[in-house]
Amino acid sequence: MRNASVRRELAADGALTIVAGVAGYGAAGWRGAAAGLVLGLGFIVAALACASQRYREIAALGTRLDEVLHSGRRLAFESCQEGDVAVLANEVEKAVARLVRTGEELALEKGRLAETLADVSHQVRTPLTTVSLLADALVHEEDPAERRRLGRELESLVDRVNWLVTALLQLAKADAGALPMEAATVSAEALARRAAAPLALAFDLADVQLVMDVPEACAFVGDERWCAEALENLLKDCLESTPAGGTVTVRGRETALATTIEVTDTGPGFSDEALAHLFERFWRGGATEQRDLPWGEGFGIGLTLAKALVEAQGGTLAASNAPEGGARFTMAFPKTAV
């Protein structure tokens, strides 16, 4: 009786009972009035029985929800049926199933975040330890030539740590969809030249030839700055695995469906294990062998960042072994209109 809807229903049934009794009395006297009252009371009993049944169903639903919240049990859809309370139960089950799935996804993301933070801590700790040792050696070193060498090495390590922190921030923004992306026409040729410019000296020192095969008319819609960042990371990876005297080639092609930029090298290519983990953060299996370069050992985040930057613009980035041998990266930007 504390339920307002039940009280309203009983009041309506009581009023109908009175009306039925009065109508019965007018039609057949006291016998008609008694019949009307009995019929009305029957309606009241039936209404109370239905209300009681609804209360039991709602109580059962509450018990199942409590089990989900406290014991981790799932709601099943085997009880799906018609009826007002049943429909409510089905909708609640859908909502709970969604919440459970969201909770599992959040737990998975939390685990990934913990692993990423552990990886970041490990990646930063090693160069910082070396920085500390070099700084101490620099303070106590008296030979000017050795001091200059230590200073250059210290500066290189600081630059590497700075690059790592910057790359991680960019990757986090890309994951969150917070990177400002322009949607302008990008010349694939200009993009390739912009990405290769910072690596020109490194290619010369490594005795690796960089070949550009990108038509002037090849273009797509995207953000040239971030595409250049992604392509530069691909060129770095190819350079790391290409032996002296080898070649890294950049090819651009435009079709009615997409514009593709392909980067290949004449190195040993990727192992099956590498292809399965290549774009994972801090994974440094890479190619079957790698060479020393002026910027030192990589952190295993460049390819991850490249993929995130390309996908943030609606493109795709894939890795494979070229038929003629060597590694191959393919950036593809689908046409928005055909």
UniProtKB/TrEMBL annotation:
Keywords: Kinase, Membrane, Phosphoprotein, Transferase, Transmembrane, Transmembrane helix, Two-component regulatory system
EC number: 2.7.13.3
Catalyzed reaction equations: ATP + protein L-histidine = ADP + protein N-phospho-L-histidine
Domain Histidine kinase per the UniProt entry, residue ranges: 119-337
Keyword set includes Transmembrane helix: yes
Kinase found in the keyword field: yes
GO MF entries: kinase activity
Pfam families hit by this protein: HATPase_c, HisKA
InterPro entries in alphabetical order: HATPase_C_sf, HATPase_dom, His_kinase_dom, HisK_dim/P_dom, HisK_dim/P_sf, Sensor_HK_Regulatory, Sig_transdc_His_kin-like_C
TM region positions: 33-51
Main location: membrane
Subcellular location field: Cell membrane
Protein name, entry field: histidine kinase
